[in-house]
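pls read this protein.

:::
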Amino acid sequence: MDCEEVMRNGNNKSGVYVIMPWRPRKRTLISDTLKVYCDMETSGGGWT
C-alpha cells in the first residue's frame, strides 16, 4: 500500500498515514510498515 492507494480508498486529506511499501523487483510487499506524510493535493494527490 502506498499514498496513491490510500487516496483511492477514500482518504483524500493530506497527512500522516501508515503504509506498507511495495518491492517491485520481487513483486511483494515489504513486511514492515512506515509512517509517511501523504500529499493528497499536489498534481492530483497520492504523493509520498
Notes: Residues 3-38 form one domain. The chain is about 10% helix and 30% strand. Residues 15 and 37 are 5 Å apart (CA to CA). The two ends are 11 Å apart (CA to CA).
